[in-house]
TrEMBL record:
SUPFAM superfamilies on file: FMN-dependent nitroreductase-like
InterPro entries: Nitroreductase, Nitroreductase-like
Highest taxon above the source species: Bacteria
PANTHER family, per the entry: NAD(P)H NITROREDUCTASE YDGI-RELATED, NITROREDUCTASE
Protein name from the UniProt record: Nitroreductase family protein
Limits of the Nitroreductase domain: 8-61, 91-152
Lineage of origin: Bacteria, Pseudomonadati, Bacteroidota, Bacteroidia, Bacteroidales
Cofactor(s) demanded: FMN
Length: 178
């Protein structure tokens, strides 16, 4: 268990992974974290699809024209989706669960990256949500928000530059232009 603030400082998006699998124990820990994420009215509208099959990962990496490449090389892709009929803030609910997965992955020493799906398009102009739903045989009402890639790190990233944080975006008491 790392100090939480150190974990936040050191977590970076990792897009290159070794060929190692993610252990069943680590997968369970990741999903436990996701299933404990807070949701509006405790509605828990999320659904998660776990993919390890390399052909499926390759296909998922084509879910949008740019920025989905890391899926092809990861050990585990977690499709974070939500039932749009269960909660109006389903995007927020799914996003918080995705963030929990990323922070839990960092605590396990695993690399992860958020790959945006919602609102994106494939090279053939198909909605990325539909592409992923079709590929994974998901119902129409279960809409993918993002895919979290997971794997052992094959790249090192520097920690966050704490000295460069945008403190001008913090307004005390009332809005102040800076
Ligand atoms: C909503 C959201 C969408 C993102 N989409 C992608 C993506 O599609 N592909 C990708 O490689 N990274 C994606 N990222 C990762 C960001 O590029 C990354 O978090 C950002 O550059 C800051 O870097 P850091 O995570 O290392 O601090 C996304 C992150 C967020 C929060």
């Amino acid at each position: 268990m790392t100090d939480f603030h150190d974990l936040i400082v050191n977590r970076r998006s990792i897009r290159k992974y070794t060929a190692d699998e993610v252990s069943a124990e680590d997968v369970k820990t990741l999903m436990e974290a996701a299933l404990m994420a807070p949701t509006s009215k405790s509605s828990r509208p999320w659904q998660f699809v776990l993919v390890e099959d390399s052909a499926k990962l390759e296909a998922l990496s084509k879910c949008k024209e740019h920025g989905a490449g890391p899926i092809a090389g990861c050990a585990l892709a977690i499709i974070v989706a939500a039932d749009v009929e269960k909660s109006d803030p389903w995007i927020e609910d799914a996003s918080i669960a995705a963030t929990y997965i990323q922070l839990q992955a960092a605590d396990l020493g695993l690399g992860s990256c958020w790959i945006q799906v919602r609102g994106r398009y494939t090279v053939n102009d198909l909605e990325s949500e539909t592409y992923v739903q079709n590929l994974l045989e998901m119902p129409d009402t279960i809409v993918p928000v993002c895919i979290i890639t997971i794997g052992r790190k094959a790249e090192e990233r520097k920690p966050q530059a704490v000295e460069k944080l945008q403190w001008e975006k913090v307004h005390i008491g009332t809005w102040t232009e800076r």
